[in-house]
Amino acid sequence: MTAPLLYSMLKSKTRFPLHSAIRLSREDVVFLFLVEHSNELARLLNEPDKKGELPLLLALNSKQRTLATSLVEHGASVDAQDPRGLTLLLNAVEREDSYSALFLLEHGASPSATTPDLGDTAMHMIANQSCSANPSQDEEDGALTVNNMIQVARKVLEYGLNPNMQNNKGYSALHLSILNDNAALFDMLLDYPSLALDVPTQDGHTALRYALLRNSLGEDGLASRLLTKKANPNPMYPASGDTLLHLLAREKKADAAVFLCDKGGDVLRTNKRGETALHVACENGLAELVMKLLHAGANVNLQTLPSTGGLSEHRQTPLHLAIQNGCDAVIDAILAHKADVKDAGKTADLNLKNSSGLTPLALALRTGMKHKVADLISAGADVNVTNSEGLTMLHSAIEQGDSDAAVFLLEHGANMSCRTPDGRTPLQLAIVNSLPIVVESLCKRGVDMSVVDSKGRCPLWAALEDGMEDIASTLVRFGVDTDCWGAGPEGCLQTLLHRAIDENLTSIACFLVRSGCEMNAPRRPGPNGEGGDEARDGQHPLHMACTWGQEQVVQTLIEHKAHVNAKDADGRTPLHLAVSNQNSKITSLLLCHPELDLSVRDKSGLTPFAAALTCRNNKAAQAILDRLPSAAEQYDNKGLNFLHVAIQRNDLESVLFLLSINVDANSKVRDSTMSTALHLACSVASPSATGTTEDSALLVRNLLLAGARPNERNSTRQTPLHIAAVSGHSSAASALLQNGADPDASDVDNNNPLHLAVKSSNLPVARVLLTESTIDAEAKNLRGQNPLHVLAIYGKDQVASSICELFLECMPQYPLDEPDLEGNTALLWAYIKGKANLCRTLVKSGCCVGMMNKEGITIFNYQTPTKQLLSKLLDLLGKEPPWAEGDMCLECGSKFGITMRKHHCRHCGRLLCSKCSSCDVPIVKFGLNKPVRVCTTCFQVLQSGVTT
């Protein structure tokens, strides 16, 4: 078909006649197109068709060189881009089309064009093509051989491409040739004079790193050839400060690292953390590399630096890292190097500490590398080095609860006396952390078991207080002091047993007793006499346990033969204390002891039975009687038995208890009084005594019911009724009278109960005696005094007048003017004693006011500060009183005779001479209206009233 016809057909059938003509290889049709569109060639020659293909690309693909040249000459761009943004050159290289690539380069295509996504040049794209040096492809089939692409590569370089250009990731063609095993390109580039061997990628990797990773480590390998060309064996990674040697070790490329070490790798260079390649190798367990680095002079004692954040461990030596990561082979390599090299400065210092203060040995213990501890110690590691907290490895192992490690350290010479900064010993730590195996190991090696901790606790107490009896048993088994005398309350000295009982720690106390501690020692004063009551109370542990009611401790002490009869400072036995504290179980335990002495008295003279009664512990008292029936009849140092004491205390309950066990109700006090129980009951049974009057009366009545004799005499021949009269206990007196008491019984002074009742001004008792008995109220004692005399002498004035009125009420004819042996009447005694009320009562009752005693004393001449009472008494006279008789004037004392006649004062009744009764005055109140003879004193009273 002719060119015009075909061109016309193409134009009518397709939008892109040029592209179709090129595909049909019709240069003549292309020529017609060029002629027709000469003004638009710049646009049309670079316009892709629907498939995105450019005219020039179609011509080159079909190797129509002439047509391609014509297109270029008419304006087709050699740097035109396909729809992906690739230039025609990059498109051709991508397709391994060396023909097109060379044509384009020869016609001015840019050798530096890059792909839009990765930034690869044509050289990068060639490097990415994996090719061997011996191609096998058939050139006639259109495949490119390695030599063709290398020719393109050379051409690219020839036309000005920089061989060191890097793509977007920083890779150069050299990097990619190594990564893709493109040996032919690698060889060509290596011979290029301006090739940069150490250009880093964005990750900082040089070509050498990739060469080493390809395991091409022989003398003809890629790495050796790079190094021969002076590639830097120690490129640095700025971000971390690592060298290539660090990186290889970190990636565990031991063979590559060993190779690099032989080829000049810097074994001393550190990264930003202060790590050398040796640190990294040790961390990753590369034993072979470690040996190589050590022999190459790596510093085995170099310590790492703190990290930027300051969070991770630092000051780590290579050995620390090997231990931390459990690398046995590396540890062996370092220790072997230490053994082989004599220069100590070049070998591992096994006592360097990391930032936590841990030596390699301490770190091995902490990280579970115990199987290496022996090797480290054999190599010279100090087992007693302290960490940053001042703790030895033994301390740390114990604090971490690692018994095996602690025992292991002890077996290898760890110091068991070394203390922590706060003063704790390994033994104390082992107890606190509950490590019985460690405690036993320490004890076997003779550790000091007496050292106290910061709380003042000895090891045994610390173990017991924390509830670790197994550890305490271990300590006891190895001979710990079970007493451990130490400071107690207020500075006194006490044993552990004292302390356990005092703090109510029953289990501890029992353990100590079972372990053989001292059971019979009281607390004692401190070195300088310190201590309060506890230091001097003399109480044994058994006393203390009884006081605190610790039954289990008491039983354990008794089982281990503690002294049951021991006395404290007050003479009390444990039984005294148990009874006083109402502890029936402990009392029973003690009473079961065959050696118990129930007759022991305390300083108050109380036996255990007496103590039981004193505190009203009847149950204990009965238990004691069951053991010793005669206990109730014992007397104290005052001669009192228990019944007497109970009565003195007005303890009705105890009295009833004693009476119920048939004690002798008539037993007498063994002292000078010889009082019976009934005497005592009457003496204490007063309203002022402890308890109520009703309770006291019950004492008397119960004693009488129990057979007490109401007329029993004491040493002064007083009956209980005498005592009741003295004490003022009317109920007791009434009870006694109802039970046959003799109201007329007299004592050694011939006083009957009424004498004593009025003497004590006990009106209720006097009323009982006068109204409930046939008592002789006129009976006289040895001084000739009847009860009224005694009342006038001793009675209280406020009560005496009432008693006198009672007498007159009960005995209207009572002899008021009866004199005693000295001639004193009741009125004279009352006037002498100044009892105005009683005097008035007697005067009103018609008592003679003029009576004189044997000494010549009357109420008129008795010397008083004033005569007011006398005047009042005279003024009270309501009727003519009885006349006094005698043989002398009661005023002047003149004897009556033939020449001296007797006269009486008609007002007071006194016997007077004529001279002393010379006054005459009518006494109207007596009905005497005519003047009658009166004495001077009465005259004054009658004339002027009561004088002051």
From TrEMBL:
Presence of keyword Metal-binding: yes
Under the heading InterPro entries, the entry gives:
ANFY1_FYVE (IPR049764), Ankyrin_rpt (IPR002110), Ankyrin_rpt-contain_sf (IPR036770), Znf_FYVE (IPR000306), Znf_FYVE-rel (IPR017455), Znf_FYVE_PHD (IPR011011), Znf_RING/FYVE/PHD (IPR013083)
Q: Which CDD domains match?
A: FYVE_ANFY1
User: Mind giving the lineage of the organism this protein is from?
Assistant: Eukaryota, Metazoa, Ecdysozoa, Arthropoda, Hexapoda
Q: Which UniProt keywords apply?
A: ANK repeat, Metal-binding, Repeat, Zinc, Zinc-finger
Domain FYVE-type, first and last residues per copy: 883-943
Q: Known Pfam families for this protein?
A: Ank_2, Ank_3, FYVE
Residue stretches of each ANK repeat: 51-83, 273-305, 314-346, 356-388, 389-421, 422-454, 537-569, 570-591, 638-670, 716-748, 749-770
Query: What name is this protein filed under?
Result: FYVE-type domain-containing protein
Keyword Transmembrane assigned to the entry: answer is no
By its UniProt entry, which PANTHER family does this protein fall under?
ANKYRIN REPEAT AND PROTEIN KINASE DOMAIN-CONTAINING PROTEIN (PTHR24198), RABANKYRIN-5-LIKE (PTHR24198:SF191)
Q: Name one GO molecular function term.
A: zinc ion binding
